[in-house]
Amino acid sequence: MCGGTLVLRKVIEFMKELPRDFPAVSRRRVRRALRAEREAAGWSQGEVARRLEWSLSKMQRIETGEVTVSGTDLRALLDLYGVTDPDRVAALMEDSRIARRERYWVPGEFREYLPPGLVQLVQYESVATAIRAYQPHLVPGLLQTTDVAKAVLDWWAGETAEAGDGVRVLDETATEARRSARLWRQRLVLGREDPPEYSVLLDESVIQRVIGGPGLMADQLDHLATVGGNSNVRIRLIPADSDGIIGMAGPFTIIELGSGDAVLYRENDTRDSLSEDADRVAVHQKRFERSWLGAFDEEESHARITSRASWLRSSTGGG
User: Fold this and answer.
1) pLDDT value at position 174?
2) Pairwise CA distance, residues 270 & 260, whole Å
3) Residue 197 DSSP class
4) Backbone angles phi, psi at 167, to 5 degrees
5) Do 132 and 281 form a contact (C-beta atoms < 8 A)?
6) Which of 61, 95, 237, 248 has the fewest CB atoms found within 10 Å of its own CB?
7) Cα-only R_g, the chain
8) Residue-level pLDDT at 72
9) Taken in order 123, 125, 129, 133, is the CA torsion positive or negative?
């Protein structure tokens, strides 16, 4: 327990010093700006690579965000594209500088316990204008109570999972770090002054499952109903007697960043990933919207959640 407590304290200290600018967000702004300037100039990636005597793969990695662009390379691209406005150049240079800090954005003692996709997800959630989450199995992490989060993470204890630059065993310290990060995300996203619009789509079977025992699950459903009463949070249940085909897609989250820009987060088994591919994001947006329209509305969903919580309490003699 001592190791877990130490990690928790370090995580809390890190949370207090969260920066205003995030490497993943800055890198995305740079790569999108460079692609837009190239397309406006009417050049292909191959043409730009030849003019700068680069390999095509280097150009592709810069525009996909696989690598951060150095200050020297950024200036070469901006000069080639004829971008001379000093304010715009300065802003992109600053974003490039911030993007190169990504490896050091999360302290080592924290980073080694978290999957890389989650580290990026936190950054995007922090500036999101809207978040849409679909879950066919569990209450999403942003809405889990402390006890349910612990029960979920303890289930994976002893297995290996992606973390930091490789994989590690999910021992007590690792699961405590992940639980702390989950609770931190809740405060960071839903507790900020300008919280994003958060739309949650759950299969009705989610509220039928009992995680951590009837009492803990009843508390979880009460919390779900309470949060669902916030003006920026909407929760809908997909009827149990519907076709439920969207469940084949697995859980996913769409993080909208404004002006039609969005990224996709997927979490399956002990792995996670974050995609910035516009076509892939659009497919999941359509899936979400179609299932959202076929789900119970917020009022009916709330009634079913509270009814299930009451039944769980009565089944244990607590209600």
Assistant:
1) 81
2) 30
3) E
4) -130, 155
5) no
6) 248
7) 22
8) 92
9) positive
